[in-house]
Amino acid sequence: MKSPELVTSDNSTVLLNSDNDPQPDLCMYRVGGQTQVNDEGYLVGPPEQITEIAGSSASYDFGEKRDVYEAAGVGEYLVFETIEGRIEWWRLSDSKFVDVPVVDGVRQSVLFPGLWLDEDALRSGDSQQLVDTLQRGMDSV
């Protein structure tokens, strides 16, 4: 997704608060939104969307890290656990994470209309289907 208002960042340090400075695999934030970049190049404040690719860290990503992101006000949190193929995507609603529903095998971002994820394509590594689904999402807005 290319947009002048959208910034994507991988493995950047995110200063959420004095106790938490994770380095998510991917995060997305809007220019002028709740995330800023400080003089050292760190992201300050909760991004609109964080994605984690989890293997051995899955219990941490689905548990404690999820709770930290929820408390910090991260807008959406997506975890893809690579060993079992588990995919969870939550969005913040009234300061609590709720599931982003799966409709016909596809999850759709609330904060980023057009950002659609085909879960079966992700699990199977079908990059063409991932791109086709994303394009359908982008065409829908």
From TrEMBL:
It holds the Pfam family Uma2. This is Protein containing DUF820. SUPFAM superfamilies: Restriction endonuclease-like (SSF52980). It comes from Rhodopirellula sallentina SM41. Residues 1-21 are annotated as: Disordered. It comes from the Bacteria. Residues 7-118 form the Putative restriction endonuclease domain.
